[in-house]
Amino acid sequence: MFECDRSLTFTAPHRDDPSHCIPFVTYPGLDDPSIANSVVIGLPIVIDHSPLPTDAVWTPQPTDDGSFTFFSEAFSESFHSRQGARAEAFLKFVQTTDLSQKAHRDRLRLLDVCYGLGYNTAAALETIWAINPQCQVELYGLELDATVPQAAIAPPLICVWDQRIQAVLQAMALTHQCTTPPLSATLCIGDARQHIQSLVQSGFQADAIFFDPFSPRRCPQLWTVEFLTLVVRCLAPDGKLATYSRAASVRSAMQLAGLSIGTIPPLTDHLSHEWAQGTVGAFDARSLLPLSPMEQEHLQTRAAVPYRDPTLGDSAATILERHQQEQAGSTLESTSSWRRRWNIH
After folding, report:
1. In whole angstroms, what is the distance from residue 262 CA to residue 260 CA?
2. Whether 283 contacts 252, CB under 8 Å
3. At 241, which helix (H) or strand (E)?
4. Is the dihedral of CA 62, 65, 67, 73 positive or negative?
5. What are the pLDDT tens digits along the chain (345 aa)?
6. Residue 175: CB partners within 8 Å, gap ≥ 6?
């Protein structure tokens, strides 16, 4: 088993607990042995309620479906769509990777790239276990900032999930691992570019990959051909990779990494620039919804020049500068011409 972080064994609280929202709150003091013991034996966790450090404060922001998200000052973006954080996890990640159909299997493996608040993981487990409660799930999450999942297990954020899922999210945030009879899950904290190399070496193959970094312009280091190539090496032959991004640079990088790509169609009522809700990748194109002619032409423009990070260690600024230079020297059609042709505003 691949190991990426110090962890403890977690036993979930009993599902008949009368409290709908288990009141775990993660604040300083997680190394206290009494807390560790509580995690091991499944007793209520008592944690220091002193305020978080000012650089680790996350303020819940409501979304339209009643769930919550955070806004990252470092990346100047929200973690989820304001139309609904919980709904986005199901629509763009769980449904598009066919987890309802795959849930009938005895075992599933999942990779959650940029775990964040844990919503994609939560939606996946809720879907799988609603269909097949005995399905054995092996899961790895990659996350840069440990304070995000820790803040996300405080009410009211965690209350949108059932108690079984709440227990998983709490264990992942507190100990970076959750081991129960149907689940073996590990949360790897730090630079995903480094963790993915270890995961590839372990031979891990995911039936579904949730690819959910901040946008390419804000976090280019996780949208490069080099990083995606390693992520794709962790995809099972019949697996699918889903992302919310419809950027041409992302789609071309997915293709260069060895995937066929399909679109996540837009909602019925959408603006001209909202031509898709994301992208799905697989090794077999027959299982994907083909790109529209407009989307196919988008891949022939300068917008499709992918991001590059040859050493998997460059800064965001370096990657952005390299990308700008490659776009400037490209002979592909300008993206503005493509926009005018398709009347995209």
Report:
1. 7
2. no
3. strand 235-243
4. negative
5. 666 643 333 333 332 333 445 443 333 333 333 323 233 323 233 333 333 333 467 999 999 999 999 999 989 898 988 788 999 999 999 999 999 999 999 999 999 999 999 999 999 999 999 999 999 999 999 999 999 999 999 998 999 999 999 999 999 999 999 999 999 999 999 999 999 999 999 999 999 999 999 999 999 999 999 999 999 999 999 999 999 999 999 999 999 999 999 999 877 655 555 678 899 999 999 999 999 999 999 999 999 999 999 999 999 999 999 999 999 999 999 999 999 999 887
6. 7, 8, 10, 36, 39
Q: What three-state secondary structure class fits 73?
A: coil
Q: What is the pTM of this model?
A: 0.85
- For the record, the structure tokens of 33 come out as 């042995």
- The token pair at 116 is 């964040």
**End-to-end C-alpha distance for the chain, whole angstroms:** 49
Cα 40 from Cα 8, distance rounded (Å): 7
**Which amino acid does the sequence have at 179?**
T
Cα dist from 183 to 108, 153, 252, whole Å: 10, 19, 34
Query: What is the C-alpha separation between 123 and 39, in angstroms, rounded?
Result: 23
Q: Which of 218, 294, 286 is nearest to 251 (CA)?
A: 294
